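This is your field. Pick holes in the following sequence-structure pair:
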Amino acid sequence: MIYKKRNRFLVSYSCLLILGLLTTTFLSCSPKEKQKEQISKPSLNDLYQAWYTQTTLRRENIDYQTTLDLSSQIISLYGEEGINKIFSVLENQQEKPLAKYLAVMALTPYLKEDWATKLLPLTEPDKEVNTRVCAISLLSLIQTPEVTSHLKKYINDPEPRVQFEVLTALAKRGEPEGIQQIQSLWDKAKDSPDKREHILLSIPASEIPSFLPLFRESAKDEQLTLTVRREAIMQLGRYGKEKEDVDTLKSILDTEIENSIKELVQSALDAVNARLQRDSLPQTPSN
């Protein structure tokens, strides 16, 4: 569902939208302008209906920037009331999966630890599966012992989508129960680029050296998004120190047509070669 890299983008993007709204507010200083601003302020219902209309479209027709813009306005202008309005989409067991996904995108930048109180009940087995998956996706970003303990209850959940989300959430936290399942999840997801992206971005920085084969594979996989391939290439440049890393990066240089990727690959290759050269030098004994 929701990935670490995508989450950072969503937070940054939403913050820019809020900043734009605040700038407009601060520049409107005269009484007449303030009065005009109050008159032109869209209603919560109008904004929500405009946002919700996006959830009725086919996935490929959704304008995600417009969707984020609208949700940002809803929350910026109406605060908790706006948050609760969007949150109700997650709580509605009859709501369509795409609407829940867009609700997660909208809520992620504003997530707070105390939301766990509302999210934990939505993960229970009696809830609809998409509700459970979306709630776990948001909970994966709340780093508290209580949430971690709760997620571990569902390690062996019979619903595969729930189990996948739980294990990757635990992996993000560096929990052994999640880390130990990364390779298995990866192998099972060989026909799902989306899942592989999710898995790769769930590997905590401290564990990346242990999973470099996954990053090598991802760096070459043209079915993955450029964002994730760049992440894989950067990590090879940061941690790679084997001949396989050099061979992987060279093979990308030989076939890649995207200039931005080729430049990144060359930088990563230079870093790996420098590391290999340094490691091959005889060690000077210390006195």
